[in-house]
Amino acid sequence: MMKTLQNLFVSQLQDAYSAETQLVDALPKMAKAATEEDLRAGFETHLQETKQHVQRLQKACQLVNCPTGGETCEAMQGLITEGEEAINLSAEPMVKDAALIGAAQKVEHYEIALYGCLCSWADELGLSDVRDLLHQTLDEEKATDAKLTELAERRVNASARQ
Fold this sequence. Notes:
Blueprint: H1 5-33, H2 37-63, H3 74-87, H4 93-124, H5 128-161
């Protein structure tokens, strides 16, 4: 039973760690499946950022004296399964890329919600150093989502419509 906001915060911090480590394994597969060069490069760039997210979460866990381990983030597991469906989709290349962008944006939106909550709770708990680490990641997740939207609207969706 969760008794305090601190307990909830630690649990969700561990959940974020599980989510990011799962994503480290999934992003190379998405990059390999992408045909649009900017999309492939975006997945590869986000893989490097995600590795930094894992490091930040390790540091955040150290700062609040909790282990990184915990249960598997089932939400991310489900989102990765959807990403695998996009990877395995039998479709024209740009249609597949549109599906990959959609799957990636679902991941980003989940992470934005998760990091937004964690930042808010860190503020409430007076953990400004932890909040700063988490906010760096939140900003990167928002930027990735914006890049995916821009790529979809600029090139992929129109090509997939043909």
